[in-house]
Amino acid sequence: MPGRALTRLCPDLLQRGCTVQRIRPLSKVRLGRFSYVPLLLFMLVLFIYPMTRMLRLSLFSSRLTLEHYQHLYAVPIYSKIFLQTFLTALRVTILTLLIGYPVAYFLASIKEKSANILMIFIIIPFWVSILIRTFAWTVILQSNGVINQLLIKLGLVAQPLKLLYNTFAVHVGMIHIQLPFMILSLYGVMKGIDPTLTNAAMSLGASSPKAFYRVYLPLSLPGVAAGTLLVFIMSLGFYITPAVLGGTRDTTIPMVIENQVSTALNWGFASALAAILLVLTLVVIIVENTVLRTNEMR
Amino acid sequence: MREKPKISKVLLAMFASLVFVFLVAPIVIIIPVSFGSSPYLEFPPKGFSIQWYQHYLSQPKWLTATSNSFGIALGATLLSVILGTMASFGILRSKSKLGGVLYTFFITPMVVPSIILAIAFYFFFAKFHVIGSIWTMISAHTVLAVPFVITNVLATLKGFDHNLELASMNLGANPLVTFLRVTLPCIRPGIISGSLFAFITSFDEVVVAMFIGGTRLMTLPRLMFAGIRNEITPTIAAVSSMLIIISIGLLLTIQLLGNRRISGEAKKIGSKAT
Amino acid sequence: MKRRIFGVFAVLFAMFVFVVPLSAQNDNVVVVSDWGGTLADAYRKSAFDDFEKLTGIKVVEVESTNNMARIKAMVESNNVDTDLMEGSQAEINRFKDIGYLEVIDYAKFPAAVANGMTDIAKDKYGCGTFAYASVIAYRTDVFKKGSNPKSWKDFWDVKRFPGPRTIVSGSSGDYPPLEYALLADGVAAKDLYPLDVDRAFKALDRIKPNVLKWWTSGSMAAQLLLNKEVVLAETFSGRIADLKKKGVPVEIEWNQGMLNMDYWLMPKGAPHKDNAMKLLAYMTGAKQQAKFSELSGYGPVNIDAYKYISPDVAANLPTAPDNIKKLIPVNNMYWSENMAKIQETWQEWESK
Question: Residues C177, C330: contact at Cβ < 8 Å?
Fold first, then answer.
């Protein structure tokens, strides 16, 4: 009888005195189908409405015009910087995933008590403001910095390496900031993966790597999706870290937008840049969403 | 039952340790710097002085800004967790196409550069003359924080077996009890990481705060950025160090308290499973 | 247990939300947005504190990042909440023609103060804060005083003066470093404006490999010199004076430095206009200016201040007679007309 099977599944509920009552048709019940409405209203008022005003600016100079978009398209430097920004975000995301996945896996596989203690290493960096963290990296990476001094003392190099004010430093800084996000996103999902599943696969004859690849990895995919999307989008928005740690080839679109808003006061053009950034990013999100949904249906 | 080869576990642990070292390296720099005596950020620091801590604790503006930041972040976290978790359910449980659209829509604030958002918010709130109000700031930060909550909660929700809910309701529990006693505990990791991200996003946020905080609502990041064009003093390092110490303390406390409860639950469920 | 923790947070939050807004709001204030750091300290000690004691008007300081954007946002949304904002001639030129700034009536200043102020300082739309110079700065443990680079030509000469440099970045908000490039290339000071932009960028090409970092804030340049990551810098004289005070072995070369002035701007519709005028009149007094210059290393806008400045402090100020004759005044009008285009060229140039 369904009732007894269910009580075995949920002994807690039985203890609390729930008894089997009339069985409702299962398919009709979908908890929370419209619970997005409050957020939707909130966002319409507090986000969409203010943003439309800003984006409208991109179509105005002294009159309704497309000149900002034309300018964006005509002057090659902006397309170049868009490309730079997206490529950097992509590289940072992939590297953060490669580094963060094993760490999250490790944390999910050890005792929860120990994991919670080690979690401190992940959460502490959050508390350090981006400014300070970026400064700390200049101290570590500069030519008189900690790393170079160590390398020279150990005799591994004769001259200090140029580790700062270049693309390498920007990546290090960005990965450092993004890793906690990636690890926590992955961990949240990995914690929910039943360890007996991989064990079952192995006891059925699968080798350890195969069990991982066929069982664990697919189950962790929602976490991977969440983490990579989060990190990618955040990486597109960096402007302090590249400005402080980077060289002349590390300009990002947010840096340009910041400049246009704060110094050039060309808000129309800044909005156009932001609009294009928005559209391009939405395309990426939609693509990822579609890929994932097809994955889920399999 | 085959046991995993030990070597891979050891390598994994070693790799994880390296990453942990990488993550805390900047902190190892900051704490000594905050005790340095020279009025510039210098490493290794020369001399020993607690003047930066004294500076921080003695100035009401720093303390007010800190408490403002905490309050705003708490408010924004609460609001974004509630709205975001509800929305996550809506996204997952609605028709698939609508869900995708909603999801993309709700995480859009992450994609907009904060300076653009700052000005957009400014013009909007200025119309109602609420620049400088705490609720303005909390609302704006909620918009920024919600995407983080949704991405995390949705991820854990996807892995959650919907049948458990159905089972619970079939046993007679109403939707609310089901949600609280069945669903919530299962998606808790997602909610916790989501709220952490939300909190940090608000606590560390500077550009929007600069514009809609007006002249009276100072937040910690605003103060820290204040001298950036002219000088970075070790006071910022002292502030960061204090936050680190406090958060370590808080985390340890929560872990110690939480661990007792979790291990208790684990024991109960464990004994039932056999 | 969890419920208790939640409860504690809820109570704290409620307390905070209802208590904070209820704290008393004093309206006899003047709201000032200045550039923070040592400058803010200098203002406090030389003027703000005494002003508060004398008049009972509180000086509320707000940080200044995004000043220009904030003026625009405030005035356009009719929501001006700041009275005085520290800015430059560039900002004045930007805003005065579209009516975003209040006119400053120097007739309301005490006659002695108004007479002591230099003409440049008494701009119709901005009251001068201080005079500053962008100069060559060098580490004295690398280049002894006397055998240091003495011109921009020297600065560009990496054979005679080897080592990494730092120069202002054209995307930092300050003017791109074209004048220095032209001077290094042999252009005479009087022939600088209008700038030969192509020639300037060609000259910048030559120095580019030796510039470790193009700085985007004054503190960055100072930090680079302090850490000896660079041996030569183009930066503000006040930053170097500050480093010297703190014992760092650096020195200023005044020759061919570019002279400019900063201003207090009053956004149109400033809420405490009268208080602001009182503060301005007080700050520009000779004694206050003397103290400010001493603390900040920048030049006073009131030449009577020199009566109260000791000679060794004066020697380090850009407006001291020995120094000012070596400096070249920046042509702000030129930049107002050409900044946008040149910034774009800079962006293209730097990413090559």
Answer: no
Q: Which H or E element spans position C232?
A: strand C232-236
SS3 call for C127: strand
The model's pTM is: 0.87
Per the structure, how many domains does chain B have?
A: 1
- Report the phi/psi class of residue A148: left, alpha or beta, with left for phi > 0 and alpha for psi in -120 to 50: alpha
pLDDT per residue as tens digits for the range B205-262 = 989 999 999 888 999 888 887 755 556 678 878 888 888 888 788 777 777 766 555 5
For range C301-330, the mean pLDDT: 90
In order of A50, A69, A259, C229, C250, the CA distances from A65 in angstroms are: 21, 9, 22, 47, 52
Cα–Cα dist B20/B253, whole Å = 21
Averaged pLDDT for residues B27-32: 85
- Looking only at the bridges linking them, the beta strands covering C211-215 and C29-34 are unpaired
Q: Verify whether the Cβ–Cβ distance A188 to B232 is below 8 Å.
A: no
The DSSP secondary structure of C247-267, one letter per residue, reads T--EEEEEEEEEEEEEEEE-B
| Residues paired with C258 in a beta bridge | C134, C328
pLDDT at A28 (0 to 100)? 43
- Nearest-neighbour CA in chain C from B7: distance (Å): 39
Question: Strands C126-139 and C250-265: what pairing?
Answer: antiparallel
Q: Which residues lie closer than 8 Å to B120 by C-beta, 6 or more apart?
A: A50, A51, A53, A54
Query: Could you give the ipTM of this predicted complex?
Result: 0.87
Give chains near B: 3+ CB pairs under 8 A.
A, C
Domain ranges of chain C: 25-131+262-318, 132-260+330-350
Element (H, E) at A187: helix A167-190
Class of domain C25-131+262-318: alpha beta
Domain C132-260+330-350 in this protein, CATH class: alpha beta
Q: Which two tokens stand for residue B247?
A: 């958060």
Amino acid identity, position A28: K
Q: List, in sequence order, every residue forming a beta bridge with C328; answer none if it has no partner.
A: C258
Which residue segment(s) compose the domain that B176 sits in?
59-231
Of B207, B215, B258, the CB nearest to C31: B215
Chain B residues with beta carbon closer than 8 angstroms to that of C82: 215
- Tell me, yes or no, if C68 comes closer than 8 A to chain B by beta carbon: no
Token pair 């810098």 is at which residue?
Answer: C233
Supply angle C-alpha A202, A204, A210, rounded to 5.
Answer: 45
Q: Which residues pair with C82 in a beta bridge?
A: none
Among the partner-chain residues A251, A263, A266, the one whose CB lies closest to the CB of C351 is A251
Quick check: is B52 in a domain?
Answer: no
Quote the CA–CA distance of B207 and A269 in Å, as a whole number. Answer: 19
DSSP state, B214? T
Looking at CA atoms only, how far is residue C73 from chain A in angstroms? Answer: 10
CATH architecture of the domain with range A65-297: Orthogonal Bundle (1.10)
CATH code of the domain containing B143: 1.10.3720.10
Of the partner residues C9, C16, C217, the one whose CB lies closest to the CB of residue B67: C16
Q: How many of the other CB atoms lie within 10 Å of CB of A174?
A: 25
Residue of C2, C17, C219 lying closest to B231 (CB–CB): C219
Nearest C-alpha of chain B: how many angstroms from A128?
5
Q: Tell me whether residue B22 is in a domain.
A: no
Residue C298 at interface with chain A, using a CB cutoff of 8 Å = no
